[in-house]
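Protocol step 4 of 6: record predicted structures for both targets in the notebook before any analysis. Target 1:
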Amino acid sequence: MLRTDAICELDSAFVPCEFRVKWADGGWEIHQARALRRRVFCEEQQVFEGDDLDAIDAQAQTLVAVSALGGMPDEVVGTVRIHAADDGDGLWWGSRLAVHPAYRKHGHLGATLIRLAVCSAHARGCRIFLAHVQSQNVPLFEKLHWTALRAETLHGRPHHLMQADLAHYPPCHDPLTGFVTGPRRIA
């Protein structure tokens, strides 16, 4: 079976050989990240109607997972945003973690996005990193050294306020280069 949305005719089972997880530095990356967020949070999960953009987007840094074909960036397949709290006291937040449905089992993309989010904030003076995590994703965050602080309801859905253990997230001073991860081999 061939992909009908591709310029070249790749088999539908094709998986890119690598993904770069980095801070978005191009307009096309931000545009595709926002489209992915709409797909996940508006269409798939129906958390928001129409669009999920809010006031935080004006100050947040967008991070992306970009698939690569032949070593060249191809498409944004994951995203998250981070921002420092207004108080300037080292409190940072992560939000809007989204991975394209076709790539959720490839390359540990969610975990790598979380890692870069916390490591890059840590390099910029983060002392506390928090996120409101949908309850079904709490086990993933706990595996990544996060602690649930309390249960909450946001947007009519169960969430947990969680905190990253910064001891497991060394500062990343080059988030534009970020991290490279490959597809997970499924036996």
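Target 2:
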Amino acid sequence: MTKSPMLTITIVVITVICSLSLSNAGSPAVFILGDSLLDVGTNNFILKAIGKAKYPHYGIDFFNSTPSGRFSNGLNMADFIARVVFGNSVTSPPAYLSFFYGGVYSEKRLANAIDFSPRRRWRRPTNRLQPVSLVGRENPAIGANFASSGTAILDINSAVDQALPLSEQVAQVMYIHGNLSGTIGSWKTQVLFAKSPFFFGVGNNDVHFFALFRAKLNQEEYIDSLVQTYNYTLHTLYNLGVRKFGIIGVPYIGCSPLMRVTTLHGNCSDIANALARQLNEGIEHMLQDMMASLKGMIYSFGNTYDTLYDMYETPERFNLTNVRDACCGLGRFNAFTNCHPLAVVCKNRDEYLYWDVSHPSQYALQILSEAMAFGGLREARPINWARLVSL
């Protein structure tokens, strides 16, 4: 009897989960690659980078109301990922480029970031995300964050914002792998990489640029190039020893203030939403094929598209009162400019879906993260983030 592809995938998932569960479970560190949804200050260290969030009113709800490089009024998705892995008292691991002093690499700072010491103020993993508290201070989790605002799947798209290309982020991971192999040993490094989840959040800028500037390109060929590049990226890291992949899908981005302000009547961009949905389908198929063919590989695909769609179409379910305008900005939809010191800032930030022209508010990001971390198959599949990090 011929097995169906879905049955085969299910068997592979169960086999991988069981084999991992029999091992010494848990995530010793977390590594994060991607774009501005995950950037915790990388672009502050890149002189030519266009997208920077180091000025007020960014970080107005962060510790001491400090702009930290996060494109948010407070925490961003990287911070909520770290909380899923290590508990509610932590924030994202530090930006990889912060390990440098004046261009000189500091192995000591890397050793402190990749720290196996049990003397940390958290329990892990968490089973829910607590409301963000302003009491306390930033407490970076174990690992490293490579994300850069403006990064896209295709390096040519990353160049638009002078962001750190995805290929360069992967090269930085490879550098850390080599550095750790020479300091803590190759075996410990392999164990660290195999047991630590690697989270990816890219594709948003590829969709933005296509919808805004390149809609005349062949859409099918464009999607194929994105999926093939993504596939090559994940295979490169798998060959380096990575086994646990947390993938953040492209959200329902056609209705962001950035996309709406570019249309005559302020409508959503159907091109952007359709492309995001098609790209997500291609990425999911790619992940299924990878897991079926690569021993030990496990993933969780976070379906941000449907969750953000729900928040936009039925805001009352989430206690949102404004899903059209940016909380911080100027002009129509507060989307004529990005957030900056002279921009208008809303007072009821937890009632806004969007903080600036394209980034959800801290409140909205927590909802999205909770859905992917603890939700069912509609929110994350084949397992959710909490299950992924516990294996």
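Step 5 preliminary note on target 2. Residues 1-24 have pLDDT under 50 and may be disordered. The longest strand covers residues 30-34.
Proceed to step 6 after PI sign-off.
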